[in-house]
Design a protein that fits this description.
The chain is mostly beta strands and about 375 residues long. It has one helix and 31 strands. The strands form nine sheets. The protein has a four-stranded antiparallel sheet with strand order 7-8-9-10, with no helix packed on it. It has a four-stranded antiparallel sheet with strand order 11-12-13-14, with no helix packed on it.
């Protein structure tokens, strides 16, 4: 059997199972040098560095582990393929020319960068991936969302929004949620009909990163106000929690916790999503200035350290530091940089391959293979 995102339960049925997902890369946007690092989450080894558009600040990962990178400097979007089998031999020399370590190839030469496109606007500041693996880019200066085709990046749909977009996430219904740092609202976009709503948080507002927990609630880091918000759709209510100063990146796991990076405090705080109680803290060390937060498919937590150009892997059970590894210069990201949200919240999916073996040495006549399924209505 070969399992990826699916497994066998106690009754012998094939079911979705996030523990079998084999994607083990985190994609870190190195804002200071215009590159993206592909880092193995299990070993910390950098397995590729890619020269992309100008000043990348967001990476989002699709269901196959491919990376979308959005750039602040020129408003362009690059897509980087995880598997060399999916890369394109653009120069026809019979091999895939691509980086396999911390040395990037010259701009435009790496054949695992599938495309770079400019959807319109000089500053891309949000990035997400929908259930069909199309990208969603938020353009800061234009106050626009663009849906980009997974194959070539052409614009499929554009939606105007009332705030300048910063963090972005998709929920299980396909609704796009945006932290409007420019404008101070949480924005809800329904891509099926392009309808837009906005919600004003209470008190001091300085929105930054965002994530969506397993119950569909939206979490917003509130930077200079040293708090986080939890927003519950339906009643549309906000709850507020005070945290160490300069809350920036935020990420949720599927075990009932969110993790928040506090930049100037060099800390990561673990929060119970239901009680909003602070249940753990990791102190990363002076000068780390953690900005981005992510969760990998082993359930470990990642802090992207802008101040030391590094990334720290954290054990969430006791918030101990597992290891720290180098990135490119001044890494900066507030999005789903491992694909964990996409695979567990946006569009849970899995594959299970079983080989039926015939007789050895003689022809086998197959009569029937039968399968019985129970699928929820939305699947």
């Amino acid at each position: 059997e070969v399992m990826n995102g699916a497994g066998i339960n106690g009754d012998g049925n094939v079911v979705l199972d996030k523990s079998s997902i084999k994607i083990n890369m985190i994609w870190v946007a190195n804002s200071g040098e215009g590159t993206v690092s592909k880092i193995n989450t299990e070993t910390g080894a950098e397995e590729g560095r890619y020269k992309v558009c100008s000043d990348p600040s967001r990476t989002a990962v699709d269901s196959q582990g491919n990376c979308w990178a959005a750039c602040r400097g020129d408003g362009q979007i690059s897509k980087i393929m995880l598997n060399q089998l999916d890369c394109v031999d653009k120069n026809g020399n019979g091999v895939i020319d691509t980086s396999t370590n911390s040395t990037p190839m010259a701009l435009g030469k790496d054949e695992c960068i599938l495309f770079t496109v400019g959807p319109g606007g000089s500053c891309a500041r949000s990035m997400g991936v929908d259930k069909d693996d199309h990208g969603w880019a938020g353009m800061w200066n234009k106050k626009k969302l663009h849906q980009l085709h997974r194959d070539d990046g052409h614009v499929m749909k554009s939606i105007s929004i009332p705030n300048n977009p910063y963090g972005l996430g998709l929920d299980q219904q396909g609704i796009i949620w945006i932290s409007g740092r420019g404008g101070g609202h949480l924005v809800r976009v329904d891509p099926t009909n392009s309808s837009v709503q906005q919600f004003k948080p209470p008190g001091c507002i300085s929105l930054y990163g965002m994530t969506i927990d397993e119950n569909g609630r939206i979490w917003l880091a509130n930077y200079s106000c040293n708090t986080v918000y939890r927003f519950t759709p339906g009643p549309n209510t906000f709850n507020t929690l005070s945290l160490p100063p300069k809350t920036r990146g935020i990420a949720a796991n599927t075990s009932g916790y969110v993790f928040v990076a506090s930049d100037s405090s060099n800390k990561v705080t673990k929060i119970d999503v239901n009680t909003m109680e602070k249940v753990g803290t990791a102190s990363l060390g002076n000068g780390r200035n953690p900005i981005g937060m992510g969760v990998d498919f082993d359930g470990k937590v990642w802090a992207i350290n802008h101040g030391t150009s590094s990334a720290t892997r954290i054990e969430p059970s006791d918030m101990s530091k597992l290891f720290e590894t180098n990135t490119g210069s001044n890494p900066y990201t507030y999005s789903d940089m491992t694909g964990f949200q996409q695979k567990t919240v946006v569009a849970p999916q899995g594959s299970y391959i079983h080989a039926f073996e015939g007789w050895t040495g003689v022809a086998t006549q197959w009569l029937k293979v039968s399968i019985s399924t129970h699928t929820p209505s939305d699947s």
